[in-house]
Design brief:
- By secondary structure, the chain is α+β, with helices and mostly antiparallel strands.
- The protein has 2 domains: 102 residues, Immunoglobulin-like (Sandwich), CATH 2.60.40; 155 residues, C8orf32 fold, CATH 3.10.620.
- The chain is built from 5 helices and 16 strands.
- Helix 3 crosses helix 4.
- The radius of gyration is 19 Å and the shape is globular.
Length: 270
């Protein structure tokens, strides 16, 4: 499937910026089942300084915001070719050893509520079956609801609240999988929706590593493993590692963020 993507991020500042740097993880990965056919990034009131590959093989672009700017716009346009591998990414690669993905972070560390979700699983089942069951339990007991959680909400807080969004579902799943000694990681990217083209945010899901199979994706919020409608952009230990944009310094100015995303299938010949 050929997916056409446009991702526009607009920052409005409460006062002129004195100095600001932005770390962007907005370039899709070249991985199994995914190939970048075209990808461009343009900027208003900002300049790209350099690009590097981080420990998770994410492409990171460092951007310098122009002094005196009151607004910054970053726009990505591209076409990505995807295949259906039933969510299987395959063998582990990257600078991070596989065992590192067993370690909890502040956002994934489970408490009593997450552990209660794990207790509902059949420990005699195969790992992949337990992971699918875990995904279903999270979706059933943590309602997808916007406006209840934020970027700093932990897995335990969302589980206790019984509500959250895709980021929270992914963190709960990751924290639980690691507790079961299954390596797991966070994924940020794009999803082509069946009912609309325009979206207000990127998407997030989780991947777990199963012996004999490798990394497998789990979209807890939608109850499926990623198919050709999904585009992987960045991976990490949690949201902070894979966030599309991370500000390093904005001085004293407050910021307002607006994101617009469109994802649609491009027909051959377009």
């Amino acid at each position: 499937m050929r997916l056409s993507i446009r991702h526009t991020t607009r920052y409005s500042f409460s006062e002129p910026v004195v100095h600001a740097l932005q770390r962007l993880r907005l370039t899709p990965k070249e991985t199994q089942g995914q190939k970048i056919l075209d990808w461009t990034m343009s900027y208003e009131n900002a300049q790209p300084e350099f690009e590097y590959e981080d420990q998770h093989f994410n492409t990171v672009t460092m951007v310098n915001v122009e002094s005196g700017a009151r607004e910054v716009v970053v726009q990505c346009d591209g076409i990505v070719q995807t295949e259906d591998n039933a969510g299987v990414i395959g063998k582990h690669s990257g600078h991070m050893p596989l065992w590192a993905f067993l370690g909890q972070t502040a956002l994934t560390k489970p408490g009593a509520k997450v552990k209660s979700l794990i207790s509902q699983l059949d420990n005699s089942a195969q790992a992949i079956d337990r992971l699918h069951a875990l995904s279903r339990i999270i979706a059933q007991q943590v309602e997808y609801r916007t406006g209840e959680t934020g970027a700093r909400t932990t897995a335990e807080e969302a589980a206790a609240l019984g509500a959250g969004v895709c980021q929270d579902h992914a963190h709960i799943f990751i924290g639980a999988a690691r507790t079961m000694d299954i390596p797991a990681r966070y994924v940020s990217g794009y999803l082509m929706m069946n009912d609309r083209i325009e979206q207000e945010a990127t998407h997030a899901w989780a991947e777990a590593h199963v012996d004999g199979v490798g990394w497998i994706g789990f979209d807890i919020s939608n109850g499926i493993s990623p198919d050709p409608r999904y585009v992987r952009v960045a991976t990490g230990m949690d949201y902070r590692d894979a966030a599309p944009l991370t500000g390093i310094s904005f001085g004293t100015a407050n910021e307002n963020l607006q994101v617009d995303v469109t994802v649609e299938q491009q027909q051959v010949g377009q």
